[in-house]
Amino acid sequence: MRIKRAFAAAFLALFACASGPSAQAIVGGEKVSQPWAAAFIKQNSGAPVEKRTYCSGVLVNPRWVMTAAHCPIAPGDTVVIGRATLASSQGEKRTVARIERMPHSNRYCPSKSWELCDVALVRLNAASAQPTLALAGSQVLREWGEGTAARAYGYGAASAATADRSSGYLKRAHVSIDDFRANNHTLFASGPRTAVCYGDSGGPLVVSTSRGPRLVAVVRARVGHDQTSCTRGDSQSYTKVGYRGASNNSKPFLWITHILGT
Fold first, then answer.
1. Same-domain check for residues 119 and 191
2. Each residue's pLDDT tens digit, 164-194
3. Does residue 236 sit in the same domain as residue 254?
4. Is 254 found in the same domain as 169?
5. Which residues form the domain of 41?
6. Are residues 39 and 109 in the same domain?
7. CA–CA separation, 41 vs 95, rounded Å?
8. CB of 114 within 8 A of CB of 104?
9. What is the per-residue pLDDT across 208-235, written as a single tens digit (0 to 9) for each?
10. Whether residue 151 sits in one domain with residue 126
11. The 3-state secondary structure of 121-147, one letter per residue
12. Domains: count for the chain
């Protein structure tokens, strides 16, 4: 899938947070449970939790959840971790204490365009006891690339027709990395019977390695890139966060490990 919609339409869709989700969600796929999966929920306004859930994420450190930088996260918003069904009490509930968005036009992101660096780390108000998902480091550098099977996770809408609310469940899409974009921060992935759609931005893309499952990318913004149509089989964009060896492609990884170490 290549750019099919106007820039303005994509921009407006991304930042509609009060009336609908700002990002992408999984169409098709299967309901699953993962202890490191996270969902971002606006403070209780009386609306159902499915209407207040707006982005997905992944626990990468007991105090930090990774997501997409364009997500309209605010201090005090709720973060649920390890919850398969949003309306349940499963897993943990924390609140957003601080947001660190990857900066651009500096030593970590050489691009002047923020969407190439669409990664954020959200500090929790208290440490989580849930298991974390490790980043793909240098030890597994040769174990993922074009053609690698992967899984995308998210809490987003079940279809474009229901884009104003989460499906209410953590879902998993089986995809394959089909365009690695070796010279920038993006990769594309697709699955014949699944797609990401509204509500999944920031959700993790995970591969199997000799060292166990590893986080290699997060569902990204659509600004300046492919317009997500929630259509099964479409090739959709992610921001690489795993270590790639070359300094340019390791920028998000280096920024993430720097923040986690502070």
1. no
2. 778 889 999 999 998 887 766 888 898 888 7
3. no
4. no
5. 35-132+249-260
6. yes
7. 9
8. yes
9. 999 999 999 999 855 434 445 677 777 7
10. no
11. EEEECCCCCCCCCCECCHHHHHHCCCC
12. 2
- Sequence-distant (≥ 6) Cβ neighbours of residue 183 within 8 angstroms: 248, 249
pTM for this model (two decimals):
0.86
Which pairing describes strands 92-101 and 120-124: parallel, antiparallel, or unpaired? antiparallel
8 part of a folded domain = no
Between CA 143 and CA 70 the distance in angstroms is 29
pLDDT in tens, 46-61: 899 999 999 999 999 9
- Based on the fold, state whether residues 51 and 142 are members of the same structural domain: no
Q: Which of 51, 210, 230, 40 is nearest to 120 (CA)?
A: 40
- State both tokens at 157: 């809408």
Annotate 41-60 with DSSP letters as a single string.
EPPP-SS-HHHHEEEEEEEE
**92, amino acid identity:** E
Can you give the pLDDT at residue 1? 34
Point out the residues of the chain with pLDDT beneath 50: 1-24, 223-227
Contacts of 8 (CB under 8 A, 6+ apart): none
12 part of a folded domain? no
Q: Is residue 150 located within the same domain as residue 108? A: no
